From TrEMBL:
PROSITE patterns assigned: HTH_GNTR (PS50949)
Gene3D superfamilies: Winged helix-like DNA-binding domain superfamily/Winged helix DNA-binding domain
Name of this chain's protein: Regulatory protein, gntR family
Keywords: DNA-binding, Transcription, Transcription regulation
Gene Ontology molecular-function annotations: DNA binding; DNA-binding transcription factor activity
Matches recorded under InterPro entries: Tscrpt_reg_HTH_GntR, WH-like_DNA-bd_sf, WH_DNA-bd_sf
Protein's organism: Micromonospora mirobrigensis
Domain HTH gntR-type: 5-70
Amino acid sequence: MPTRPPHCCRVADDIEAKIRSGDHAPGQQLPPVSEIGELDNVARSIAYRAVKELHERNLVYGQPALAKRG
């Protein structure tokens, strides 16, 4: 039985898809972590980890609170 990815990876995948589709332009600031949490219906800590995951994927730069699409 396949397992579901952790919530933070699902949220990171959703944001990555928006970056790759052009919904988030290069240099555009991502929504605040609190807003990401509200939009994806997850805790703020999960949203923070999702942005951290995007850093690790080299898709965003800057501080997690001020992450911008690279």
